Amino acid sequence: MLGVLGGMGPLASAEFMRRLTLLTPAERDQDHVPAVLWSDPRVPDRSAARLGGGADPLPALLRGIRGLEQAGCGAIAIPCNTAHGWFDGMQAATALPILHIVDAAATELARLGVPAGRIGVMGTAGTLAMRLYQQRLEGRGYECLVPTDAEMTRLVTPGIAEVKANRVAEAHAPLAEAAHALAARGARAVVLGCTEIPLGIAAGPALPFPVCDTIDALARVAISWARG
């Protein structure tokens, strides 16, 4: 049984469950991955907590983990990149393996034929400030380019906010512009390191360069775990 610690945001969690289903090789109901979704949008804002002044989300995250443990889950996937800033605290509090979304992204990059080199990373201000991707990917041979402060303020943060407000179509233009800017600076591929960003990107024309969708990446790793 896969546990999904979600609600951050709710649409991204629902999309993860959809991708988990669509990416599973299955011919009948019984071939799919048993899963429990804990979708709690009351978890305090992760970026606000990391950048200063926001409430600590760890107690709410641990409450969700306890619920998934009680439901009989054998592993946990968290379709929220920024929540992985509290990965160590969550993993220390449970014996269940937590599937790390950045490691999943690295596996997806290799699958896409981008084993090393210069890549772009988009994410929330909190994710980028914590260097979640930079720390784990640079040791694998990647050089991570991130949006400028101006691009975050004008494009990325507003685009993420549009998805959280269920205005997905409006999110495409600013998020796609930010991705193109990273490619123009030499990124061979762009990691969509916030689970709202793939939804906005998918609302318009496909980007003309490899894109690592972290929703798909985490779903593929979860399916691999479920199949042993």
Explain this structure.
The protein is an alpha/beta fold. It has 11 helices and 8 strands. It has helices spanning 10-23, 46-51, 58-70, 87-92, 101-111, 125-129, 132-138, 149-164, 168-184, 197-201, 214-226, and strands at 2-6, 35-39, 75-77, 98-99, 117-122, 142-145, 190-192, 211-213. The strands form 2 sheets. The protein has a 4-stranded parallel sheet with strand order 2-1-3-4, sandwiched between helices. A 4-stranded parallel sheet has the order 6-5-7-8, with helices on both faces. The termini are close together.
Helical segment count: 11
Extended strand count: 8
- Helices and strands, in order, run as EHEHHEHEHEHHEHHEHEH
Structural Rg: 17 Å
| Beta-strand residue percentage | 5-15%
What spatial form do the alpha-carbon principal axes imply? globular
Estimate the mean pLDDT confidence.
97
Oligomer: single chain
| Secondary structure: helix percent | 40-55%
Widest sheet: strand ordering: 2-1-3-4
Residue runs with pLDDT of under 50 for 5 or more positions: none
Which structural class best describes the helix and strand composition? alpha/beta
Cα end-to-end separation? 12 Å
Largest sheet: 4 strands, parallel
Explain briefly what this protein structure is.
With 228 residues, the chain is an alpha/beta fold. 50% of the residues lie in helices and 14% in strands.
Question: How would the blueprint of this fold be written?
Answer:
Layout (H helix, E strand, L loop, with lengths): L1 E5 L3 H14 L11 E5 L6 H6 L6 H13 L4 E3 L9 H6 L5 E2 L1 H11 L5 E6 L2 H5 L2 H7 L3 E4 L3 H16 L3 H17 L5 E3 L4 H5 L9 E3 H13 L2
Parallel strand pairs: 1-2, 1-3, 3-4, 5-6, 5-7, 7-8
Helix pairs in contact: 1-11, 5-11, 8-9
